[in-house]
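Dock zinc ion; give full complex structure.
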Amino acid sequence: MSPNKLGAQALDILALAAHRDDVEQTCGGTLLKAAQNGQRTGILDLTQGEMGTRGTAEDRAKEAADAAKILGVGWRRALDIPDGRVENIWENRLKVAAVIRETKPRVLILPYWKGRHPDHYTASILGYEACFLAGLAKLELGPQNSDVGQSTSGSLPPHRPFKIIYATLYYDIRPTFVVDISDQFEGKLASIMAYTSQFSDQEAGKDLFPAHDEIRARVSAMACFYGMLGGVTYAEPFLQKEVGLVEDLLAIPVKSI
Ligand SMILES: [Zn+2]
């Protein structure tokens, strides 16, 4: 499957985030695990990274494609929403809603709705409201014909994800569940390292390795912490607004005492 062509099949899981490399950091291991289990995964980046201190939007496009490959993600697209100015406006909601209809995800992963970076928390609300719009039968919404957000003729059928979950890694809040990524940790790390323009030390004569060591330590510390909460080595944190539904008390994971 080419990175931008979906064919007739829907995605099982779509992860949406403001910036290229956000998804790798917040839920890359979970996406890799899903792909390894045969599920169809995708990533929607709202911006193209043109405001980044290091590297150009073109550099980041190449890096994002490399990272997607490492995570086994078959579909990835970046919208043309301005970097550093992700706004929850009608025009942007329509762009995201069109992607929801086009990719038809069963599960949508959004960023958590609070945080330091306005793009991150705005992406959360924007994503949620776009899902609502995407399900309105009377809203005409055509497919996006390219990365620049122009609609082609013909409306896509309405669709809403069955489940919306929030990746909470960027915010200090207790997750409602974690995903065990012990076997996917190295892959997650490799997908983050794919963003060499962001993480390599660009100053002439500087060694790359200290930067890499620091990233590994940081990513590992977070994954360890959430792993500990779930009784596993490494995990990624998520929050769902709904309660958990249990069929069998004997099958509930995570030891209490
Ligand atoms: Zn970000």
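Observed: The chain has a mean pLDDT of 91.
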